[in-house]
Amino acid sequence: MKIIKNIFLIVVTVFFVACNDDDYTGNVPEQKQTQLKVIAKGPAVARVVSMTNPATGEAAEGFCFLIDMVDAETGEVIGTVNDCDIKTTEFPDGTLVSTVVTTFNFDGKGSITSVSEVLQTPSGDGKFTTESKPLENNIFDTTFDFEGSEGKATLVGEIDLSKFDQNIVGFNCNFTIDLVSY
Questions:
Q1: For 157-181, what is the mean pLDDT?
Q2: Beta carbons within 10 angstroms of residue 118's beta carbon
Q3: How far apart are CA 150 and CA 128, in angstroms?
Q4: If we measure between CA atoms, which residue out of 111, 113, 41, 108 comes closest to residue 76?
Q5: Is the pLDDT of residue 143 over 90?
Q6: CB 110 within 8 A of CB 143
Q7: Distance set, CA 97 to CA 74, 93, 182 (Å)
Q8: Confidence category of residue 30, pLDDT binned at 50, 70, 90
Q9: How far apart are CA 50 and CA 9, in angstroms?
């Protein structure tokens, strides 16, 4: 009986020591969160571009617009936004829903590419309010300083389609990019 008690105590001691270090977090990378607020602002001319939809991998043809990217805090131009509409559905009330591939090119820092479903609601005189608030991560590609990041790009703004018949669209779009990296 004494041998069984000693074996039991040894087993309990081994389990206690073995399980005592379960909360070890020494090799867990630290999560870094970054928020960027930029504005795509100005007129742009439509270009037809063959591309790949990063969300599906399928070939697509898009109407792309290259626009200045402005830092929302400083007002300085910090790069360009390449906004490519690869599919638009128009509803009877004039509302549009577009699948848009947006590449944010930050001068000297790299790029961030997202795919969004953008709601465009007519506000009069050829102008539309724009909004995209994805529920899931919609960033599909990052380079250089942003390499390996994931997250969401949201949009609230306005576009002017009054000169669309001349392939010109005016942009005033506020983007918030929330990135997570390790």
A1: 96
A2: 21
A3: 29
A4: 41
A5: yes
A6: yes
A7: 31, 12, 34
A8: confident
A9: 72
54 is written with which tokens? 């990063």
CB 22: neighbour CB atoms within 10 A?
A: 6
The reported pTM is 0.83
DSSP classification of residue 127:
E
Q: Where on the phi/psi map is residue 6: left (φ > 0), alpha (ψ -120 to 50), or beta?
A: alpha
Alpha-carbon dihedral 6, 8, 11, 14, rounded to 10 degrees: -60
Helix count (H) and strand count (E) of the chain? 1, 10
Q: At CA 84, angle to CA 161 and CA 61, rounded to 5? A: 110
The token pair at 133 is 């608030």
Contact 141, 111 (CB under 8 A): yes
